[in-house]
Amino acid sequence: MRFFWGKTAFYLLLLLGWFLLAHSGWWPEYMLPAPEKVFQTLGEGLCSGRYLLAVLISIRRLLLGYLFSLAIGIPLGMLTGKCRWLDETVGSLLLGLQTLPSICWLPLSLLWFGLNEQAILFVVVMGAVLSITVATNSGVKNVAPLYIRAGKNMGAKGVVLFLRIILPAALPSIVIGLKQGWSFAWRSLMAGELLFINLGLGYLLMMGRELNDMAQVIAVMFVVVMLGLFFDRLLFSRLEKAVRRRWGFDHS
Amino acid sequence: MNEARALPCLEPLPDLDREEEPTGAPFFLPGESPRVHNRPKSRPKLEIRNVVKTFASTKGLIRALSNINLTVHEGEFACVLGPSGCGKSTLLHLIAGLELPDHGEIRLYSSRTKKGNNAEKLIIFQEAALFPWLTVLENVLFGLRLQRLGAKESKERAMHFLALVKLENFANCFIHELSGGMKQRVALARALVLDPELLLMDEPFAALDFQTREKLQSELEELWKRTKKTIIFVTHNVEEAITLGDRVILFSGQPGTVKQEYTLPPGRPRQKESPFFAELAVEIKRDFQNPGRELVEQVTG
Ligand SMILES: Nc1ncnc2c1ncn2[C@@H]1O[C@H](COP(=O)(O)OP(=O)(O)OP(=O)(O)O)[C@@H](O)[C@H]1O
Ligand SMILES: [Mg+2]
Predict the structure, then answer these.
(1) CA B258 to CA B45: how far, in whole Å?
(2) Is-cis flag, bond preceding B255, omega within 30?
């Protein structure tokens, strides 16, 4: 709250600068549209349901891809974290693949799946799954041996030991992986939708370009930013904070 | 081992005669061997025979324990005293079955016929080792849940033991909201609630300040009297060992061996100010610091 007024003033000034610049006539409208024009486009787009549809389609892809990534990434991370030879083999491969920007999977994906939903889903999964796997892996590997000893001492072993001690102990680092995985999934999706036009927000962006409609481009970018902020602030940051607080990390 | 069980300072001290014995019997009769301090009716609970443990480390093989022989009796409070690195924690881990000895055998004489209870030898670690993702109550419930007891019964038991360590008002707190002393109390409750045959305590009060430590020591003594548990208590503090132990087992380091045992008179709480204990403390400290007692006696005598 301390910076509330400062923040407000900053954004108002930014808007004013944009307004003046756009009306100065230095740049043509297709390069820099006036803010009121952008807001008008945004309002129309939202009211007509065009943007809403695009948002829903994109989010559906995102959620589906993310769920797949969770279902693959968490078990894979656990297995490689617990099993030494799996870690040396599969784990090292995953670490290597993590350096590959996920959009590089698009050509392969198009050849495998063709021009359809599966192709874009594949790209999203490849974006998210690796960071979730790697974070789960290191979380499981870095559980303090003291917790494991204490659990074994009280009679926990095998699956019980894993579910009741190793998993909760690794949760803070898994949550970081979940957050990072989400943002990678989001980025991959946008990149995929831009290159492989088929509804969704990326498609709207490309349409704006093709129609030379800069107001639409900026309006859609605005929607993308808002959605990203929404998920990050309202979901993942809160989750991370709650876990950190409960695990006592913010108190030492 | 030949010196084991020899009690130093054998002269009956006048102030000890004044001490009230719980059994009513004099704890010391003229002409009798010092073994009179051993509780005569107690049966062995734990037997350690020729145990050797070696670790592979970056510096090569380290012999942590060499040929340990030790018997702990039922209901006994045995204190293992020794310098840092002499293998005290290793010994407890071996007893608890968290690690296996290279040689020798460790046998627990269980008084129960019931099978399937894996929690018969419980360790309380130096750093409490409570689970931060669970509340105080859930921590105490952890072991009970593994044993598949009814939810209501488990909770009642857990609350009972939390009350025993005076923490019933903190049942729903998180671990990081507790002080160091409270954490050790929770760890104690978490172990006692499982009704272990043997309680292994690894310098549980070492990280606490003087006052908290004294308080927890007397609480532990009280709990021990009430629950009649067999306790092996590891410490590097001589005063702590003679305050709590029925017997003090002095270890020497690298590799860890039993150097000496002292059997203490049973009267409790201990009159630590009495000349007997003062002298005993001095004696143990001397043995503690010196490489070999015989050697010192040669030099001084
Ligand atoms: N996992 C291990 N790997 C290699 N060496 C070990 C391991 N655990 C213990 N040691 C070695 O065994 C010896 C005894 O260690 P231990 O932890 O039992 O000592 P301690 O008596 O408990 O000491 P402290 O009072 O400092 O806790 C030490 O020399 C230590 O270096
Ligand atoms: Mg130790």
Answers:
(1) 19
(2) yes
Reference A102, options A188, A206, A12, A2; nearest CA is A188
Q: What single-letter amino acid sits at B84? A: S
Dist CA A83 CA B136 (whole Å): 32
Residue-wise DSSP of A175-232:
HHHHHHHHHHHHHHHHHHHHHS-SSHHHHHHHHHHHTT-HHHHHHHHHHHHHHHHHHI
CA B196, CA B107: separation in Å to the nearest integer? Answer: 15
Average pLDDT over residues B212-237: 88
What number does CATH give the domain B1-10+42-110+197-301? 3.40.50.300
Closest partner CB to B142 (pick from A146, A154, A246): A154
Q: Which residues of B touch A149 (CB under 8 A)?
A: 93, 98, 123, 125, 129
Determine whether the interchain pair B125/A168 forms a contact, defined as Cβ–Cβ distance below 8 Å.
no
Cβ neighbours of B138 in A, within 8 Å: none
Mind listing the pLDDT tens digit for each residue in A105-117? Answer: 989 998 999 888 8
pLDDT score of B31: 41
Number of C-beta neighbours around residue B68 at 10 A: 25
Minimum mean pLDDT among A100-109, B118-127, B282-291: which range?
A: B282-291
- A52-245: which CATH topology? MetI-like fold (1.10.3720)
Residues of B with Cβ-Cβ distance to A246 under 8 angstroms: 132-133, 174
Determine the pLDDT at residue B6.
39
Angstrom distance (rounded) from CA B265 to CA B15: 13
Using H for helix, E for strand and C for coil, what is the string for B265-291?
CCCCCCCCCCHHHHHHHHHHHHHHHCC
Pairwise CA distance, residues B124 & B184, whole Å: 8
Over residues B116-142, the pLDDT tens digits come to: 566 788 999 988 899 999 999 999 999
Residue-range domain boundaries for chain B:
1-10+42-110+197-301, 132-194
pLDDT confidence tier of residue B32, bands split at 50, 70 and 90: very low
- The mean pLDDT of B186-206, rounded to a whole number, is 89
Range A72-101 average pLDDT: 90
Q: Is ipTM > 0.90 here? A: no
The ligand 1 site (C-beta within 6 Å) comprises B 55, 57, 62, 64, 82, 84-90, 236
Determine, for residues A149 and B123 on separate chains, whether the beta-carbon distance falls below 8 Å: yes
* A248 φψ region: left (φ > 0), alpha (ψ -120 to 50), beta (else): left
pTM of the model: 0.79
